Please model this.
Amino acid sequence: MLEYGHRALGLAFLLTLPGAGRPSQNNRQPDNRLLTGKLLYVAPMPEGMDQWIVQDLKAWNRYQVTANSEGVDFVMRTHVPEKPTRFVVRNGIPQPAKERKKPPAPSIEVVDWVSGRVIWEAEILDKKPKRDNEALTSGSHVQIRARGLAPNQLAGKVVRAFREYVEQLGEK
Model:
């Protein structure tokens, strides 16, 4: 009986370790939660792009788009990475370096509301769009070239890439 208790305690300890019982990030299976979830909240975004995304998502009719973030399956939000302050030493005194004019590349994420895990992400690049290749990569992480696009055009590209990913999941 004592031996069984030690084994159970050891197993319980192993399951509490980070990553225990889960596949590694490299060979993680695609998340089918996007196929079963129904409610989606679109958080406010710069330049009113959230309104264009809501309109495109409603036209798709895959998810019920709601104005309340509580209790939804997914949240679509904008994430702008923080720019670290760079310092240069002038006359022996560290001073902030001149900031680059180009802001950091934002991304649009679809997050599982319960776990807080990013399920899908579109990185917005400040590059001219190419006619033959709208999204640079497919899958749960895409890059979209957006220089010169109006908010409604960018929203259309984001929803199109998200829709393609969800439909790919449904085919598997």
Notes: The chain has one domain: 29-80+102-171. Residues 56 and 156 are 7 Å apart (CA to CA). Residues 151-171 form the longest helix (21 residues). DSSP finds four helices and eight strands in the chain.
